[in-house]
């Protein structure tokens, strides 16, 4: 745990923080290139992967949501092909058969869960242009000014393990400081936002940037213009 907002990837510089080079287990086919920047209770992990080549596994050992930030990753599973360039995103469910191929220079950011309660949910693409349905705004007591209009689409949900992913959008607003209720990875598709931690440290993000906020991190959120993001939530 850090209690801090982590800028996992900055699109302008192509930079990512150094993590601990470590696999998520003996059967992690991406383990040779995985950098774990953050982890909690040995069950939720976030970071980046630099990986190239070809590998396969009959039963993927954990659940992982990833967003490609450089290069090209192609996944084959269950007769389907997922061809992912920069901004492409999928969730790989535990137990899925996976054949992966990646070009040199391929990188993605990830949030993964290894809880024993995970079910088998398939491999699901996250489409940033999917139609969104209305969703609840932040609680009124934390808002400054007008209540925003929020929309979302949940692409993947394993409620037993508390692992969810999808797309969320909002109109501009400011949310007062509060502890973050979940572990959350966010990849910005559109718009600009500032996340300010309890000590005053401000992390500014825009399209192509990815940030991670762990549960309990006290932060203030200021959203400038309409914003859309891919989100991954873990409650483990």
How are the elements arranged and paired?
Elements: E1 5-9, E2 20-21, E3 34-40, E4 44-50, E5 53-57, E6 63-70, E7 73-77, E8 80-84, E9 89-92, E10 98-102, E11 107-113, E12 123-126, E13 133-135, E14 143-144, E15 150-158, E16 163-170, E17 173-179, E18 183-197, E19 202-205, E20 210-213, E21 218-234
Task: List its traits.
single chain, 236 residues, mainly beta, 7-stranded antiparallel beta sheet, 21 strands, 0% helix, 56% strand, globular
Report on this model:
This protein has 236 residues and is mainly beta. It is 0% helix and 56% strand. It is built from no helices and 21 strands. It has strands at 5-9, 20-21, 34-40, 44-50, 53-57, 63-70, 73-77, 80-84, 89-92, 98-102, 107-113, 123-126, 133-135, 143-144, 150-158, 163-170, 173-179, 183-197, 202-205, 210-213, 218-234. The two termini are 12 Å apart. The mean pLDDT is 95.
């Amino acid at each position: 745990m850090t209690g801090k907002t982590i800028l996992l990837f900055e699109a302008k510089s192509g930079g990512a923080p150094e993590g601990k080079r470590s696999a998520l287990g003996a059967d992690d086919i991406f383990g040779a290139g995985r950098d774990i920047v953050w982890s909690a209770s040995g069950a939720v992990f976030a970071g980046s992967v630099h990986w190239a080549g070809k590998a396969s596994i009959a039963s993927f050992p954990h659940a992982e949501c990833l967003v490609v930030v450089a290069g090209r990753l192609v996944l084959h599973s269950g007769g389907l092909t997922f061809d992912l360039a920069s901004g492409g995103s999928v969730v790989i469910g535990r137990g899925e058969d996976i054949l992966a191929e990646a070009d040199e220079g391929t990188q993605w950011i990830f949030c993964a869960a290894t809880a024993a309660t995970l079910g088998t949910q398939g491999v699901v693409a996250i489409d940033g242009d999917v139609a969104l349905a209305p969703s609840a705004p932040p609680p009124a007591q934390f808002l400054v000014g007008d209540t925003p209009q929020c929309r979302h689409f949940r692409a993947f949900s394993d409620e037993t393990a508390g692992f969810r992913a999808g797309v969320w959008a909002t109109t501009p607003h400011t949310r007062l400081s509060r502890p973050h209720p979940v572990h959350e990875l966010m990849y910005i598709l559109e718009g600009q936002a500032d996340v300010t931690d309890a000590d005053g440290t401000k992390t500014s993000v825009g399209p192509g940037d990815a940030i991670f906020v762990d549960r309990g991190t006290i932060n203030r959120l200021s959203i400038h213009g309409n914003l859309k993001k891919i989100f991954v939530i873990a409650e483990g």
